[in-house]
Structures are given as structure tokens and as C-alpha cells.
Amino acid sequence: MLIMDTALNPILRPTRPADNTKADVTDLRETLLRLNVWPEAGDEFLALLPVSRWHAPPLTNEDNEWLSIVAQAALKGDDLGSNYPAFFQKLITNANLRQAFLDELIHRQPEHTPNGNNVMKQ
Predict the structure, then answer these.
(1) In a domain, 80, yes or no
(2) Residue 77 — left, alpha, or beta (φ > 0 → left; ψ -120 to 50 → alpha)?
(3) Structural domain tally of the chain?
(4) Is residue 13 part of a domain?
(5) Which of 1, 32, 50, 57 could pair covalently with 38 via S-S, beta carbons 3.0-4.6 A apart?
(6) Three-class DSSP category at 118
(7) 10 lies in a domain?
(8) Helix 85-93 and helix 25-34: axis angle, to 10°?
(9) Considering the chain, what percentage of its residues have pLDDT values greater than 70?
(10) CA distance 3 to 67
């Protein structure tokens, strides 16, 4: 059963103004939905966050190493929740990692050239 009160459900909250520098969970969810890689259980996981005691673990050097791997996997269409569950949980709970991940996706997405061909950024 999903929570329908927008104040309690982070999925239904309106997105924040564009001047925020840190991506919120809604930004991550919308981006991963567009890439068709939002995990099937992602919404249920988000619904549990307001009542859970999960805290954002500190970022590690290993997170930086996984960042590009998971971003590349997302762009290929891999299921992040199944293939990278610990990283996905950290993405949801850590705003700094979330922002770095979204930045990495933008950096890696193909650019559209005037002739309509896609060019991958290096």
C-alpha cells in the first residue's frame, strides 16, 4: 500500500526549485525512470525512508570507484537495485553521492550533433 499524502511520501513531493545545488531523491528517481533503470522496489524503499532510522553513511574512496561503474551501467539499462543494491541504498540516503552520480550521468550521456547523430562524451 503506497502512502498518498504528499507530505509523507517523497515520491509525490513537488520537485525543488532549480537553484538547489544538491539533488534530492526526486531528481534521482526522475532521471533513473527516464533511463528505465529505476528499481522495481525503489518506490517502496523510498516510502520507508521517512519512518526508518537509516542515515547517510560517509563517502569512501570506493564510492568514487563505483560511481563511474554504476553510472555506465545505468546508461546501458542495467537494474541498479538488483546489480548494485548497496550503492543504490547509499544513493538514496546520501545527497553528495546522489549529486555526483547525476553529474556523472550528465557527463556520460550522448550529445546530439546538428546532423542528428549521437556522440558519446569521453
Answers:
(1) yes
(2) left
(3) 1
(4) no
(5) 32
(6) strand
(7) no
(8) 140
(9) 65
(10) 31
Amino acid 94: pLDDT: 87
Question: Scanning the structure block, which residue is given the C-alpha cell 553510472?
Answer: 71
CB 40 within 8 A of CB 81: yes
Tell me the residue range of the domain where 64 lies. 60-113
β partners of residue 112: 118
> Has residue 22 been placed in a domain?
no
Rg (CA), the chain: 15
**pLDDT score for 122:** 42
Question: For 77-95, what is the mean pLDDT?
Answer: 89
- Min mean pLDDT across 22-36, 39-53, 74-88 is at 39-53
Dmax of the chain from CA atoms?
51
Mapped onto helix, strand or coil, the DSSP state of residue 112 is: strand
Mean residue pLDDT of the chain comes to 74
Q: Is the pTM of this model over 0.85?
A: no
C-alpha cell at 9: 511520501
Mean pLDDT of 19-46: 79
